[in-house]
Write a structure and sequence with these properties.
Blueprint (H helix, E strand, L loop, with lengths): L4 E3 L2 E3 L2 E6 L10 H17 L3 E7 L4 E6 L6 H19 L1 H4 L14 E4 L4 H23 L4
Antiparallel strand pairs: 1-2, 3-5, 3-6, 4-5
Helix pairs in contact: 1-2
Amino acid sequence: MSKYKKLSHVIYYHVYHIVWTPKYRFRVLEGPIKDFVSESLRSLCEWKRIEILEMNIQFDHVHMVVSIEPKLSVSAAMGILKGKTAIKIFKSFPGLKKKPYWGNHFWSRGYCSSTIGLDEDKIRKYVKYQEEQEKKEEAQQLGFEF
């Protein structure tokens, strides 16, 4: 099977590695909030026909490797994903909105996006196993060994 996808008038291969953070990089993406964000992102991506190839939600950031159709720009996709999830999060977890530092914005303003070409497998493995690697590095810094 080819990596290329087809629409009525285009054949494409658009794969992006996207990373973004909660406002002030607060470490709130854990437990029920992490699960909620994961489900929200999956349903929004399905709605907008964005294919999630890999996704990893850390305490303070989200990594996604996605395939986006050419008719949807990366910035439009990010506006939808960040905007809709923020609204849903504040509705489902009203305690977060009470904190004065949120200011009705859950996500930080920017995001990081890069296209994936020949190194796709390396980047997908990095996204998939990043959490495990970070735990090992933290343990080494604290003097523990695995």
